[in-house]
Amino acid sequence: MITLSAEQCRIIGIMLEKETTTPEQYPMSLNGITTACNQKSNREPVMSLSESDVQNSIDELSKMNQLMIDHKASGRVSKYYHYFCDTEFGNLKFSPQQRSIICVLLLRGPQTPGELRTRTTRLADFADVREVETALEQLQNLNGQTLVKKLERQPGKRESRYVHLFSDVDESYGVESNVAQTEAALSESTSSAIAPSVSNNQLAQRVTALEEQIASLTEQVACLTELLEDKC
């Protein structure tokens, strides 16, 4: 299985996204790829790459036979298309659902099945979260290859996150901020709502309940934000 840098993951993810959502803009020019790489919405982490940075990554991917110049394109501007998956030259063959998950994981890092269902709406159809989980299970053993991994569930979270294995992606991305928010909310809530006479066991139960409520609200807000961004 190929190993990609963070920048290469971003470029491949963009290629998969644009090929599906805006086929009229695919193959893509250097300027188009750079703009999509630095997009502030639907990208985690947000990057600030120069055209030179992107061209270097494109050249590297070309040497790896993952990108090709479209010689049939008219005009003086070079345009590129991917060989990453679902081509006659590669061994990665995905269903639309599997492909959408890989695309979003490449663009946004580790995510829960619930987040993936919300963020793949423009790429593939999932009837429910269970269908997302089924596709993730398939990607954990696809033709003898393990392409995604299930991470340990974070404290206070209802779902475990999944990460792609095409690079050494930071598995902790987004965790510290969530933990800090949870700790701040718990500190404020417990200080005002819990009396000094409460036993340790009762305190632990209340803290766990608060963590679950905060996790649920955080996921709902994230989903609403994604839906609003897609409509804008």
Quote the average pLDDT: 84
What shape does the CA trace take?
A: elongated
Helical coverage, percent range: 40-55%
State the CATH architecture of the largest domain. Answer: Orthogonal Bundle
CATH superfamily of the largest domain, please? Winged helix-like DNA-binding domain superfamily/Winged helix DNA-binding domain
Low-pLDDT segments:
174-186, 189-198
Tell me about the biggest sheet? Answer: 3 strands, antiparallel
Tally of strands: 5
Q: End-to-end distance, in Å?
A: 37 Å
Tally of helical runs: 8
Please indicate the percent range of residues in DSSP E strands (runs of 2 or more).
Answer: 5-15%
Biggest sheet strand order reads 1-3-2
Name the CATH class of the largest domain: Mainly Alpha
Radius of gyration: 20 Å
Fold topology:
Layout: H1 6-21, E1 28-29, H2 30-37, H3 51-63, E2 67-69, E3 79-82, H4 96-108, H5 113-119, H6 129-139, E4 148-150, E5 162-164, H7 175-193, H8 200-231
Antiparallel strand pairs: 1-3, 2-3, 4-5
Helix pairs in contact: 1-4, 5-6, 5-8, 7-8
Annotation keywords:
Arc Repressor Mutant, subunit A, 5 strands, 3 domains, two-stranded antiparallel ribbon, elongated, 232 residues, three-stranded antiparallel sheet, mainly alpha, 51% helix
